[in-house]
Amino acid sequence: MKIIKILFLGLFLSLSLNAKVITTTSTKSSTGEGTGLTREDAINNAIIEAIGKMSGVSINSLKKSNTSVSTDNSGSNIQDNYSEQISKATKGRADTYEINSVEQDANGKYTANVTIFKTTTTKKYQAPGLSADNRRSITVFDS
Q1: What is the pLDDT at residue 13?
Q2: Would you call 136 helix, strand, or coil by DSSP?
Q3: Exposed, middle or buried by CB within 10 Å (0-12, 13-18, 19+), for 50?
Q4: Rounded distance between C-alpha atoms, residue 116 and residue 29, angstroms
Q5: Contact 122, 24 (CB under 8 A)
Q6: Pick from 36, 59, 54, 71: which is nearest to 120 by CA?
Q7: Reduced to 3 states, what is the DSSP secondary structure of residue 20?
Q8: What is the pLDDT of residue 14?
Q9: Are 51 and 78 in contact (CB under 8 A)?
Q10: Domain boundaries in the chain?
């Protein structure tokens, strides 16, 4: 009988001392507006802008300036060429997006407005028993 009580107590303690899993889910949203020659380009540019707002962007810029001078009997000709190339890369992804509006202007360009959603799930384990912050402590002083 004593062995049964010890086994029952051991089984009860082992089942009650499991860590609890706490799951939290959060959803972020961001809106963006984009333009393009086609409807799809406008939507893609709007999604890129919204992701850039939420996660940040990395921008690289390359600038070139070239000046050439040529002279002949009729005079001199100065030609100045300047070009700039900007590339933008986003640092994130979105789970879903929702098209709020797509409009076409008189010139045939499309303007789109979208909202993106990103859901994040985090899990945290909570140890059984009392929190370590609430425990009493003992301090020993030399006398």
Answers
A1: 65
A2: coil
A3: buried
A4: 5
A5: yes
A6: 54
A7: strand
A8: 64
A9: no
A10: 20-127
Mention every residue, 6+ apart, whose C-beta is less than 8 A from residue 109.
Answer: 35, 36, 37, 42
Report whether 126 contacts 33 (CB < 8 A): no
Contact 71, 62 (CB under 8 A): no
Q: For residues 107 and 55, what is the distance between their CA atoms, to the nearest angstrom?
A: 33
Q: Give the residue carrying structure tokens 């009729």.
A: 74
CB atoms within 10 A of CB 94: 20
Q: Count of residues for the chain?
A: 143
Q: How far apart are CA 47 and CA 36, in angstroms?
A: 12
Please tell me the predicted confidence (pLDDT) of residue 137. 76
**Residue 78 CA to its chain's centroid (Å):** 48
Residues of the chain whose pLDDT is less than 70? 11-18, 86, 129-130
Per-residue pLDDT, 4: 86
